[in-house]
Request: fold
Amino acid sequence: MTLEKNEANKRLIEKVQELEKKHDVELSNTQKILLTTDGSITAILDVLFGKITLTTLDQHFEDADTSHAKLVNVSEGEEINFREVIMHTDERPLIYAISHIPLKRCSKDVCADLIRADIPIGRILKNYHIESRREIHNIFIEKPNERLKELFKTDEDMLARDYVIINNDEILMWIKEVFPISYFR
Reply:
C-alpha cells in the first residue's frame, strides 16, 4: 500500500510540474496542496481561514446520462444527486465545487444531510465515520464559464481538479473543485 501511495504522490507531483510548465506559471505551495491533497479540502480551508461556510447553489436529482454514469460507474438512467456549492468565508468565495453522487451508494442519513444541509462533503464523511479514499484524476487550468465569472468576480483562468471518493471499492462520488489562479498565493 505504501508503494502505491508513493507512486500516486509522484504522479501528482508530475501533474503539477507539467501544468506549471505548460502554462508558464509557478503555483504556490498552498495551491499545490489544494490541488493534490487526498484529504479533505474543507479541513485545509478551516486551518487557513477558521471554520469556512458552504452554500448550496443548486441541488437536484437526475437520471445519469452516459457521461455522468461513466464518472460514477453506474448504469445510464440510475438516479444521481447533482450538487453545486461554493465554499466561502464571510468576506469572499474560496472554492466552487460540483459533485455527482449515486444515491444507491449513500445511506439514508448521508443522503438526508446532502439534501437538506449546507454541509461540506468532507464534514459529512467525517461525521458518519465513512472510511474512504480520494483518487485524483485530473489537475488542470480552465477558462471560467459565466457562473464562475459571476461568483468570483473575475474572468481570470481557474485552477481545477476532479477526483472520486471511493468507499468499499465503489465510487461514492465524483467531485470537481475550482478556484481562481490568483487565489491562495
